[in-house]
Write a structure and sequence with these properties.
It is a single chain. By secondary structure, the protein is α/β, with parallel strands linked by helices. 45% of the residues lie in helices and 17% in strands. The protein folds into 2 domains: 197 residues, Rossmann fold; 104 residues, Orthogonal Bundle (Helicase, Ruva Protein, domain 3), CATH 1.10.8. It has 15 helices and 13 strands.
């Protein structure tokens, strides 16, 4: 299985199966091709995804449709200001045994699933949001001194409304860093909106079929990690990541002026894995510079923190990151091309 031929065959099979899932989602979701691709990228690398956009753009429908195309356990948590951590994780309940004795028994919460839709996650308080941290990072839940492992594969697909809307709470930076991608869902085009109206107002219901299970997803996750990234390409993504650190060795003017904190190492890991997916879907088994650039924004837009000057001038993270891509050269004199 280590020969070039077998890798090529598996890569072609992955691209075909990816297309099947994409097409099945497309039977329900109109447009938003980049968003769908981003969600599927998170799925196939084992990462969590954060979808941001105003209500009514189809964020929840997209995640629910994804769950319907996969033979995985699915649960939905509606985040509200009065939601408590126990409502997510579960709690110990007093139960009576057949012998009449009373004992504590753990009742699992909705986080014990494989695809967890955290709907409007930023409407809950930071205390409740923090209940997701261990599950997202360790794929486990600790309750009363016991550790419960979650079933693999495990994904959190969260939606949030823009922070300027009333009744929302910013997600803690530590939690944001655990999302593989942050995808910004925009408005539909004229053509797509017409198609949405035609599909949804004529009493026609489309139920996507299941096309993939958890075992197959884990298989593709392993294949993606076999994709090669050459040293000079890896150095490019490293320098791009370091360029987000204000006053650092590789920082650019935009980072120094508008950023308070740059990306963590997890950002570089995200870029690498996402670029490997892009390479496979393009029929290549090695990562290119363009693969790196294509995933740079969704990988880092939630991992950089703007300073006061940026907020005062209305600067968005994407603007700073695009400037970094423009300024950082592909080649570096101290790294040889393989």
């Amino acid at each position: 299985m280590s020969s070039t031929e077998s890798i090529e065959q598996r890569a072609q099979e992955f691209a075909a199966r990816y297309k099947e899932v994409r097409e099945e989602i497309g039977r329900v979701i109109v447009g938003h091709n980049d968003i769908v691709h981003g969600v599927l990228t998170c799925l196939f690398v084992g990462g969590h995804c954060l979808l941001e956009g105003v209500p009514g753009l189809g964020k929840t429908l997209l995640v629910r449709t994804l769950a319907q195309t996969l033979d995985l356990d699915f649960s939905r948590i509606q985040f509200t200001p009065d939601l408590m951590p126990a409502d997510i994780l579960g709690t110990n309940m007093v139960v009576e045994t057949p012998e009449g004795k009373r004992t504590f028994e753990f009742q699992k919460g909705p986080i014990f699933t494989q695809i967890c839709l955290a709907d409007e996650i930023n409407r809950a308080t930071p205390k409740t949001q923090s209940a997701m941290l261990e599950a997202m990072q360790e794929h486990s839940v600790s309750i009363a001194g016991k550790v419960f492992k979650l079933k693999e594969p495990f994904f959190v697909m969260a939606t949030q409304n823009p922070l300027e809307q009333e009744g929302t709470y910013p997600l803690p930076e530590a939690q944001l860093d655990r999302f593989f991608f942050k995808l910004v869902v925009g408005y539909s085009s004229r053509k797509d909106l017409t198609e949405i109206i035609d599909r949804t107002t004529r009493g026609v219901t489309i139920d996507p079929k299941k096309v993939m299970d958890g075992t197959e997803i884990v298989k593709w996750q392993k294949l993606i990690r076999e994709v090669i990234i050459a040293p000079h390409v890896q150095d490019y993504l490293v320098r791009l990541t370091l360029a987000t650190h204000p006053e650092g060795e590789f920082s650019v003017e935009a980072a120094n002026k508008f950023l308070r904190w740059g990306s963590s190492p997890r950002g570089a890991q995200t870029i690498t894995l996402a670029a490997k997916v892009r390479a496979l879907l393009s029929g290549r088994y090695n990562v290119s510079f363009e693969d790196i650039r294509s995933v740079f924004l969704p990988s880092l837009r939630h991992r950089v923190i703007l300073n006061f000057e940026a907020e005062a001038e209305g600067i968005e993270p994407d603007q700073v990151l695009k400037e970094i891509v423009k300024k950082v050269p592909e080649k570096s004199d101290d790294v040889k091309v393989a």
